[in-house]
Design brief:
The chain is an alpha/beta fold. The chain is built from eight helices and ten strands. Strand 2, helix 2 and strand 3 form a beta-alpha-beta unit. The longest helix is centred in the C-terminal third of the chain and has 22 residues. It is globular and about 55 Å long.
Length: 300
């Protein structure tokens, strides 16, 4: 399988002031999927414009035809499986079956307290995620669901006619720990990693490769434990959070070298951020477009 190259378009621009243009250009450039972050606000963008993921993806679905669309990632921090399922089924319908749900356990950022709650501990986030994913799987696959759990409930929740994609739209599960990886192996069509966050500040690219190799090997072991064919699970690297930072987007050759080292680890999809001036995701737009158009052919 040849490498799929995708992008993340952060929802920080008004639709008619550059937001729309990015999504249409992503399709023109041949990206496999264009994702967006599903946050209420995020890091250094907190005090500036930031729009909702599902409305943004719905608008993007209406102006594209081939481009897959998705979140990277949605989390339980401010989402409930029942309402999220209804929105996703609607989005999948509007897009004609082009939606992938990137989903993770969430973190301790602004989303964790925006609804007035105390931040959950890592253990509680993992516990909620372990309940969130199976319930969402049912809600997207069955016409009517009732459920009583420790964190979430559903009472005769109806989701007719269901997803265009059958039995449901695909999950790309972000995980680095064993519990999350088991969810990826059981429910995911893809596994997502950003690498080892502990290496971002002071690590080296070589250390990052070793850490990601270790993650991939753990996933292989877990797939074997649960009886999942590891070759049936796509592997997605969201770039920008390894010690390489923006280095791979400095030139076509730099990206091909970076991507090639991760393809050797079994990755089937690499996601790069759409350039944002004066941010951690700044990059030369001409180089970015050259990578989009030329790199996949060099990585077959």
């Amino acid at each position: 399988m040849s490498l799929r190259l995708s992008t993340v378009i952060l929802p920080y621009r008004r639709w008619h002031e550059g937001g729309r243009a990015a999504w249409t250009r992503a399709e023109q450039l041949g990206f496999h999927t264009a994702y967006t972050y599903d946050h209420l606000s995020w890091r250094t963008f907190r005090d500036g414009p930031w729009f909702g993921a599902v409305p943004t993806l719905t608008a993007a679905a209406s102006i594209t035809e081939r481009l897959r669309l998705g979140t990277l990632v949605t989390s339980p921090n401010f989402r409930h499986p029942v309402t999220l399922a209804k929105e996703l089924i609607s989005l999948d319908d509007i897009s004609g079956g082009r939606v992938t749900l990137g989903i993770g356990a969430g973190g301790s950022g602004f989303d964790a307290t925006a609804l007035g709650q105390e931040p959950w501990t890592p253990r509680e986030r993992a516990d909620r995620f372990a309940e969130f994913v199976p319930l969402l799987d049912r809600l997207l696959s069955e016409d009517a669901v009732s459920y009583e759990g420790d964190f979430y409930s559903a009472h005769e929740a109806r989701n007719i006619p269901g997803c265009v994609q059958r039995p449901r739209l695909p999950f790309a599960v972000a995980a680095t720990g064993p519990r999350g990886m088991r969810l990826a192996a059981r429910f995911g069509q893809a596994w997502v990693t950003t690498g080892d966050p502990k290496l971002y500040e002071n690590g080296t690219p070589e250390q990052s490769i070793q850490a990601i190799r270790g993650q991939a090997e753990r996933l292989d072991d877990i797939c074997a434990e649960v009886g999942r064919d590891m070759t049936d699970l796509d592997r997605v690297l969201l770039t920008g959070f390894t010690p390489d930072r923006g280095g791979p987007l400095q030139s076509l050759n730099a990206f091909v070298d970076f991507a090639g080292r991760h393809v050797e680890l079994g990755f089937t999809e690499i996601v790069i951020h759409w350039p944002i001036p004066d941010s951690p995701f700044s990059a030369d737009e001409k180089v970015f477009e050259q990578i989009a158009m030329e790199a996949p052919a060099q990585l077959r």
